[in-house]
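Subject: Protein entry, chain in single-letter code together with its fold tokens

Category: Structural biology, sequence-to-fold work with a learned token vocabulary.

Notation: Tokens come from a learned vocabulary of local backbone shapes, not from coordinates.

Start of record: The labelled sequence and token lines come straight after this line.
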Amino acid sequence: MQLSAEILLRAYASGIFPMARSRDATAVEWVEPRRRGIFPLEQFHISRSLRRHMVQGRHRATVDVAFGAVVSGCADRAETWINAEIAAAYGDLHALGHAHSVEVWDRDELVGGVYGVVIGAAFFGESMFSRATNASKTALAFLIHRLQAGGFQLFDTQFLTPHLASLGAIEITQAEYRRRLAIAIGAQAEFHPAAYPPEPSGAVVCGTSHRRTQTS
């Protein structure tokens, strides 16, 4: 079965997602973790060092200007679950407005980013990458700020890793995830909220996060 945007949307709405065993794998497998990682959107941790880094403006962020490059950056590692078919299918989702990326730049060089899928008020985080200190954390901070502003209710991280846990992600049961998923995909949210700056500054993001999130 060829992976398509329609199949991907049905899969995410059902609580499953695709993975390949390697970059060169021709088969795509469907995964439904027994326990699911999520970010409670009000509990994202911005450390003092990351806050200082963002306020100083060492990196700038954009949204949806280099989606394909972000997917390629996420796949550019020794072991990856992103094969050519998966990359192409997410590109189709992006063209339809159901997949988005946040890019982090050092001048004109792409140094980090994160991408994921949107259905209703649910954001399904797929992968992120970093080629500079704090780049992926910066992308995540900009993303969560945007999701908060847009009224999102669920940020699915699929699995819980020690790195994500250190930033405030938690693990819930499959049954609880399905309950939250049903509510979120039936609600409305905006990834591009009205009056939201297309390139928010670190100072703006950290200023809002200071009121909304915990710091370490």
In short: Strands lie at 17-19, 29-31, 35-38, 60-63, 99-106, 109-119, 122-130, 154-158, 170-173.
